[in-house]
Design goal:
The structure holds two protein chains of two kinds. Chain A is 0% helix and 56% strand. Chain A is mostly beta strands. Chain B has no helices and eleven strands. Classes of the chains: A mainly beta, B mainly beta. At the A-B interface, strand 4, strand 5 and strand 10 of A face strand 5, strand 9 and strand 10 of B.
């Protein structure tokens, strides 16, 4: 089983719709969760961090975390064509000296005008 | 967040040669991370570079192939040695904004490496 799993997509949504991106992780001690956006040919850009169960909202983005289910999601409201990118879920435990991020394979999102 | 500059941004190299990638940060950071992103794939950590100590390599990556230097708190280099077509990837350095287990990482623009 992969440590961090995402649906690879591609996921297509019409402009103005809600895009829902999902991620599951296997390490129960994970405490820090991140969503990165990566445009084609560019490096990953951090868009959301979440550490506690529940929802965290930032503009059109909402991250949702359920540690019991080992599940983290990203909702993009009022999707725009400029949101078309690959979204990477990253997880990191807090235990010991483990500081590296473990990335999912990414979900490719296309927002159709 | 820290400003991270990577050089070169891209290169095309011959088989058997080596390429050294530089990563410069505009503030002092304890840890710098080097990742590889193969075509169509996600990011895989190569190693963690601490100033004043040997880099810590992840499973599947060895120092002879990926030597790393970390001479000070704002700079690191990654060398990819004895290049083969399988080394064609994007190489990325990253840093944490602030020291702490829960801090996110931010990435440089990456180095796109192609092997002839």
């Amino acid at each position: 089983q992969k440590e961090v799993e995402q649906n690879s997509g591609p996921l297509s949504v019409p402009e103005g719709a809600i895009a829902s991106l999902n991620c599951t992780y296997s390490d129960r001690v994970s405490q820090s969760f991140f969503w990165y956006r990566q445009y084609s040919g560019k490096s990953p850009e951090l868009i959301m961090s979440i550490y506690s169960n529940g929802d965290k909202e930032d503009g059109r983005f909402t991250a949702q975390l359920n540690k019991a289910s080992q599940y983290v999601s990203l909702l993009i409201r009022d999707s725009q064509p400029s949101d078309s990118a690959t979204y990477l879920c990253a997880v990191r435990p807090v235990t010991g000296s483990a500081r590296q991020l473990t990335f999912g394979s990414g979900t490719q999102l296309t927002v159709l005008p | 967040s820290a400003v991270i500059s990577q050089k070169p941004s891209r290169d095309i190299c011959q088989r058997g040669t080596s390429l050294t990638i530089q990563c410069q940060v505009d503030s002092q950071v304890t840890m710098m991370f080097w990742y590889r992103q193969q075509p169509g794939q996600s990011l895989t950590l190569i190693a963690t570079a601490n100033q004043g100590s040997e880099a810590t390599y992840e499973s599947g990556f060895v120092i002879d192939k990926f030597p790393i230097s970390r001479p000070n708190l704002t700079f690191s280099t990654l060398t990819v040695s004895n290049l083969s077509p399988e080394d064609s990837s994007i190489y990325l350095c990253s840093v944490e904004d602030r020291q702490g287990a829960g801090q996110p990482q931010h990435f440089g623009d990456g180095t796109r490496l192609s092997i002839l």
